[in-house]
Amino acid sequence: MAPVGGPGAKKGILERLDSGEVVVGDGSFLITLEKRGYVKAGLWTPEAIVDHPDAVRQLHMEFLRAGSNVMQTFTFSASEDNMGSKWEDVNAAACDLAREVAGKGDALVAGGISQTSMYKHHKDEARVKKLFQLQLEVFIRKNVDFLIAEYFEHAEEAVWAVEVLKESGKPVAVTMCIGPDGDMCGVTPGECAVKLVKAGAAIVGVNCRFGPSTSLKTMKLMKEGLQAAGLQAHLLVQSLGFHTPDCGKGGFVDLPEYPFGLEPRVATRWDIQKYAREAYNLGVRARREYWENLLPASGRPFCPSLSQLDA
Fold this sequence. Notes:
Elements: H1 13-18, H2 29-35, H3 48-51, H4 53-66, E1 70-72, H5 80-83, H6 87-102, E2 108-114, H7 117-122, H8 125-141, E3 146-152, H9 155-165, E4 172-176, H10 189-199, E5 203-207, H11 212-228, E6 234-238, H12 269-279, H13 288-293
Parallel strand pairs: 1-2, 2-3, 3-4, 4-5, 5-6
Helix pairs in contact: 4-6, 6-8, 8-9, 9-10, 10-11
């Protein structure tokens, strides 16, 4: 990697966004690697980074070749409370692999943390922040380009994460796994966005629990909340690759099909291009009416289009 400021130096995440670039992330490491036999469903922890590094490297490469501008470290749920003594080796190896692949293109490396198991049981701010701090120390040592706090159900814990990460001096992005109804304590998407920006996040948004259309509804509410508060931030949306209009507040994890029967809900490439166009407020240049009104069929006889949630 070229030295900062030298010939060929990569532009940072905020430099790219401030210039109007569309930055494309990666995603779906856990579910994709579970389908390939490298992750256990239910646990959803990233031991594969040390047990099967070639599988993780291959997936990073697939995202890079598909056009991802960011290689996020495979550190979802990799805090000490979830992984015990293995947490540090996992975080360090994830940084090294992400950097290796990012160096093969014009991609940045993002160090990622996620909600803790401890918060739901204790809500001890000092202890939760200590878990985030431990991971952050590895990310600083490995010199990641920016930081992402992702998959938070509670605005309070997400704020704690941002407060820890911003102490590094690196740009901080944060995403919540919420829908239009807000977080698990009833904090609205707009209020969540305001809290996160005030805590120090430069990029805010949603990820992972809901499909494309629902995620965009939530983003609209976040944007409106920021505008009403007179605040500005870059927006980030990472939806599921599944359609989930029948989800409850908890998202797709509450569906009867989760996690082994979701394939009929997979979004098509057309769905994703439409989602991307809407997300970034671009237009469709050719045959707009046809593509915007197309309703792809599943091809599955007698298959209901929506699920009934368990009582």
